[in-house]
Design a protein that fits this description.
seven-stranded mixed sheet; Helicase, Ruva Protein, domain 3; single chain; Rossmann fold; alpha/beta; about 20% strand
């Protein structure tokens, strides 16, 4: 056992916490596994941790037992708040739980850098949160690293390379400003209830500066337009971005007849610079 609190099955039974599909809930019940995921976030001593969707608190307990200085847990489901209170009592002054929507809370009002993010993200907001964390107005961001659970298919899109089916906007956003790696695969039966798909934990380490120079807004616009019509050649997919797009493509050495999935990050950054130029 990682602490003196009861096993997660007992916690769920005591608090009648049946997982809600509407909240994208799938609970991890193995405390050895949640401690392992906490360790994937690196050394937590001396760091504050933001956790989204703690549910019955398996990962919360893992983060605290692994030495996190302070954990801010944001949970939409009010049924989980009494569980958070029990964990807070077992780890005095180290857990602050908020009942609310992660998209509305500013973590910097509650946490002190260095800050790491670790979460078994609810499937319905996972990608939106990741994109938000990868596209702040200034860089470096408030977080040092993100250790996040996704559906395996989403995890593969984050680490995808050009020329593969999974390669797209998510890969480019993640790899432009961070170092993403899949660090753990989890089968459906690790969860209660078991989801229909496999899951994976992705660890993203923030780079001190983006890998290649580009204006974030321009890059985002180019990449979104290119992959929204990924079957089209770039000269037609990007027509809406700039009527003279062929000139820009030629100027940076991208064939106008290429499709988005054939173009690497460095080339997309060069194109964004040319368009901004």
């Amino acid at each position: 056992m990682i602490d003196n609190l009861p096993p997660l099955r007992d916690v769920i039974a005591t608090h009648e916490l049946a997982a809600k599909k509407s909240l994208g809930q799938n609970f991890l019940l193995d405390l050895n596994l949640t401690a392992k995921i906490a360790r994937m976030a690196g050394d937590l001593t001396g760091a504050d941790v933001l956790e989204i969707g703690p549910g019955p608190g398996g990962l919360t307990r893992g983060l605290l037992s692994e030495g996190a200085r302070r954990v801010l847990a944001i949970e939409k489901d009010p049924r989980c708040m009494p569980i958070m209170a029990e964990i807070a009592a077992a780890y005095p002054n180290r857990l602050h739980a908020i009942n609310g929507d992660a998209l509305d809370v500013n973590p910097l009002e509650h946490l002190t850098p260095p800050i790491k993010v670790a979460a078994n993200l609810p499937y319905n907001v996972g990608t939106e949160l990741l994109v938000r964390w990868l596209t702040p107005p200034t860089w470096p961001p408030f977080w040092e690293s993100l250790t996040l659970m996704f559906q395996r298919e989403v995890a593969q899109r984050i680490v995808a390379k050009p020329g593969t089916k999974a390669y797209g906007r998510l890969a480019l956003l993640a790899q432009w400003r961070s170092d993403p790696k899949i660090v753990l695969d989890l089968p459906p039966e690790a969860f209660s209830p078991p989801p229909k798909v496999s899951s994976a934990v992705v660890h993203l380490k923030a780079l001190p500066a983006p890998r290649f120079e580009a204006d974030a807004g321009t890059l985002n616009r180019v990449v979104a337009a290119a992959f929204n019509q990924r079957r089209k050649m770039l000269r037609s997919a990007l027509k809406s971005v700039d009527p003279a797009i062929e000139d820009h493509l030629n100027a940076v050495g991208i064939k106008p007849t290429e499709r988005a999935e054939q173009v690497g990050l460095e080339e997309f950054c060069a194109l964004a610079r040319s368009l901004k130029g």
